[in-house]
Design a protein that fits this description.
Elements (H helix, E strand, L loop, with lengths): L17 E5 L3 H12 L3 E5 L11 E4 L1 H8 L5 H9 L8 E5 L5 E5 L11 E4 H15 L4 E2 L4 E6 L4 E5 L4 E4 L1 E4 L7 H6 L6 E13 L1 H5 L12 E7 L2 E8 L4 E9 L11 E2 L1 H7 L5 H7 L5 E8 L13 E3 L14 H19 L4 H31 L3 H6 L10 H4 L3 H16 L1
Parallel strand pairs: 1-2, 1-11, 2-7, 4-13, 11-18
Antiparallel strand pairs: 3-6, 4-5, 8-9, 9-10, 12-15, 12-17, 13-14, 14-15, 16-17
Helix pairs in contact: 1-4, 1-9, 3-4, 9-10, 9-13, 10-13
The structure holds flavin-adenine dinucleotide.
The site of flavin-adenine dinucleotide has 29 residues, from helix 1, strand 3 and helix 9.
GO molecular function, one term: FAD binding
Family: Belongs to the paxM FAD-dependent monooxygenase family.
Keywords: FAD, Flavoprotein, Monooxygenase, Oxidoreductase
Length: 427
């Protein structure tokens, strides 16, 4: 049966560029979808054997929404909207940690429907994007294929799978996450993460016990909510999603323990309660409803000197190139911007000039990513070192920053606009 491809998603003129993407996270999937949109031939190799709904809360800014909205005539964004938090009436309430008083109530600004924001379950949103790439666009996604080696010469790049199979293309995109193997090849050494001095306990659960308790029912009975309790060196963010049916919290605190970047490392509720001694009792009332938690150590990496290999045939993308602190709420969004940019620069460079396209990708992205990464630290420090007298006088000083230079960025337009100038600089 013939597959109908809508004009918007029909690949542009084929470029003949064969792109191999490693990793089917948001970074790898977006790189593949955008390469398809720009006319490249693309396939994905992913180590997980099947699609599973994993993780908990993830955030996408309007600069990601603008990208999703272009897929399938807005249908992908619409599916993601139904799974995401709706704070149009509730906004964000910021509490002082001990008294519990609301010190700031940040309203949700009217959004641009062509650049929506999404906060929802990482696994549920990931499934929407994964199925779009595989089922609607027909991008080959090879699951259960762990990439063990990377090679390149001046003319091509290859990967080797666990069973020894070698796959070759014009370029390999290493979007293999925070523990990237591709990064070792690109750098020529192993980049060791350091403790950032912080960790996050995280949880996602149904509202059943929350609505049974009159102290906490208010968070689930009237639609979606978002509340944050800010204290010295600790912040606790709690949201209810999908019309209050799902509950989610993240608690960032000091932690110098062993580094582990896994998403499934279990944590203990008694440790959470110890950190929250002296806090508003509402925090405990929420946390005690939680069936299980994940303990995620936040690591810090020095900025990589480069994201591209010696011959310009392998590049890093997303978390493999630049892990983010959750307080930036931009980690996944910046991975998306990477994918969009790379697809454009490869098209502009053409098959004969792939290394120039790869170099231009890094040039276009590097400084912006660094600047956005820093916002993760500034927001965390602004909260953890809050001066409560100042906050009383100026409640806005503790609000979550919403910066135009981050949110209004159109990665596709920007890459098209600056490509020629960027390439002139290095040729
Ligand atoms: C299971 C999981 C759960 C997560 N949950 C959350 C969450 O709840 N909240 C949040 O904010 N962020 C979460 N993240 C991280 C978040 O998705 C990323 O920070 C962000 O989306 C950038 O994505 P990425 O594609 O660069 O990296 P990732 O999302 O980490 O994707 C990397 C992909 O590469 C694959 N991979 C790794 N090594 C190999 C290899 N050798 N061969 C083939 N494939 C390989 C991995 O299986 C993974 O699918 C999670 C990531 C994962 C993998």
């Amino acid at each position: 049966m013939a597959v109908t491809i809508t004009p918007e998603d029909a690949p542009a003129q084929p470029t003949g560029i064969n792109v191999i993407v490693v990793g089917a996270g948001f970074g790898g999937l977006t790189a593949a979808i955008e390469c398809h949109r720009q006319g490249h031939t693309v396939s994905i190799y992913e180590s997980f054997p099947e699609l599973k709904v994993l993780g908990d809360i993830i955030s996408f800014g309007p600069n990601a929404g603008r990208i999703f909205y272009r897929w399938s005539h807005g249908k992908i964004a619409a599916k993601m909207r139904a799974l995401s938090i709706d704070l149009s009436s509730y906004g964000f309430k910021i509490h002082k940690y001990d008294t519990g008083e609301v010190v700031a109530h940040q309203k949700t600004p009217p959004g641009d429907p062509t650049a929506p924001m999404f906060n929802g379950h990482r696994g549920e949103l990931h499934k929407v994007v994964f199925e779009y790439a595989r089922d609607e666009l027909g991008i080959p996604i090879h699951l259960g294929q762990k990439v063990t080696k990377y090679f390149e010469d001046e003319k091509e790049a290859s990967i080797e799978l666990e069973d020894g199979t070698k796959v070759t293309g014009d370029i390999v995109v290493g979007s293999d996450g925070v523990r990237s193997r591709a990064r070792t090849l690109v750098l020529g050494y192993e980049d060791k993460p350091k403790s950032s001095g912080y960790a996050v306990w995280r949880a996602w659960f149904s509202n059943k016990d929350m609505i049974a308790d009159p102290r906490t029912a208010e968070f689930c009975n009237n639609g979606d909510t978002f509340n944050g309790w800010i204290g010295p060196d600790v912040h606790f963010l709690f949201s209810t999603i999908k019309n209050g049916s799902d509950c989610c919290w993240v608690l960032t605190h000091r932690d110098e323990h062993d580094i582990d970047e896994s998403w499934s490392f279990p944590g203990k509720l008694e440790d959470v309660f110890k950190v929250l001694e002296g806090w508003d009792p509402m925090c405990k009332a929420i946390i005690e409803k939680t069936p299980s938690i994940v303990d995620w150590k936040l690591v810090y990496r020095d900025p990589l000197p480069t994201w591209t290999s010696k011959n310009g045939r392998i590049c890093l993308l997303g978390d493999a190139a630049h892990p983010f602190l959750p307080t930036s709420a931009q980690g996944a969004t910046q991975a998306l911007e990477d994918g969009v940019t790379l697809a454009v620069t490869l098209k502009r460079a053409g098959k004969e000039n792939v290394p120039a396209g790869v170099r231009a990708y890094q040039e276009i992205r590097y400084d912006r990513v660094r600047a956005v990464q820093k916002t993760g630290e500034t927001t965390r420090d602004m909260w953890h070192k809050a001066d409560w007298d100042k906050v009383k006088k100026d409640p806005k000083s503790i609000e979550l920053p919403r910066e135009d230079w981050i949110f209004q960025h159109d990665a596709q337009k920007h890459a098209e606009q600056v490509y020629d100038d960027v390439v002139k600089k290095f040729t």
